[in-house]
Amino acid sequence: MDTLERVGGEARGDLEHYLWRHYPENIALLHDLWRRGRGGAHRSEVPALLGYRLAGEIVAVQGIYGSGRWLPHFVREDALSAMLE
Asked: Which residues make beta-bridge pairs with 42?
């Protein structure tokens, strides 16, 4: 049985690729990431990305903001409990 693995900045490219594959549901998070790359986002609105990999594939990504905002997306429901921890 494969184990759910939490990933962060070291997998940024994979996390962003996941978000783009599901862009209609993640448009707000993608916008904030785009603004950050251009220096336009206030520090509290710069999301940290955390994701979850199962069998080598990203199955969930969440954007966590300094202001307390949380934008999750998952394609595997079993990732939700790990995201809430």
From this structure: none
